[in-house]
Amino acid sequence: MTDSTVTEKTKTTAAAATDTSEPTGKGLALARESGAPGDRGRTVIADAVVAKIAGIATREIDGVHDVGGAAERVVGKMREVLPGTSVSTTQGINVEVGEKQAAVDVSIVADFGVAIHQLAAAIRRNVINAIESMTGLEVTEVNVTVHDINFGDDDDDQTDTPPRVQ
Questions:
Q1: pLDDT tens-digit profile of 84-132?
Q2: Which InterPro entries does UniProt cross-reference here (predicted)?
Q3: What phi and psi, each to the nearest 5 degrees, are found at residue 57?
């Protein structure tokens, strides 16, 4: 080979390696190395992870007494008593997670005196912000179901009454 042929091949190879407009051949390798989004693998976020984020974000809001429906709360109370178990952060939270989007259903018990529509809006905002900032998923909807209202000292009032049988 002559010097002009080697020089021409070097120029062609260098041009192909630096051209990222169409990532094919050696250009594809350079595009991946330069950190083009989505080219280096796939991230899968489990439903349980999104549910935990939503559960924690829901519990952060003032006015949420508990999370979950009646049956879920009973099971949750029993779990608290058993040694070696912890409170479930996903109690009362149902999620559906796709590749780019998530939908969330939240079940709560509200404190008495709280404006429920404002409470639901605050839960929605906090859940959406938490999930979108931590996972990059777009939250399409957050549905809030209020199953009950807590009146505060209901449990204390029952212990203050004298027993009916001595």
A1: 666 678 888 999 999 899 999 999 999 999 999 999 999 999 999 999 9
A2: Asp23
A3: -65, -35
DSSP secondary structure code for residue 1 in this structure: -
Consecutive H or E run containing 143: strand 138-150
Domain topology for 47-79+89-150? Alpha-Beta Plaits (3.30.70)
Residue with tokens 């905002």: 125
Confirm if 58 and 91 have CB atoms less than 8 A apart.
no
- Residues 131-141 have pLDDT tens digits of 999 999 999 99
Q: Cα–Cα distances in Å, from 86 out to 60, 74, 81, 90, 161?
A: 18, 14, 9, 11, 32
For the whole prediction, is pTM greater than 0.90? no
Task: Name the residue with higher pLDDT: 22 or 80.
Answer: 80
Exposure string over 83-108, b if 16+ CB within 10 A, otherwise e: eeeeebbbbbbebebeeeebbbbbbb
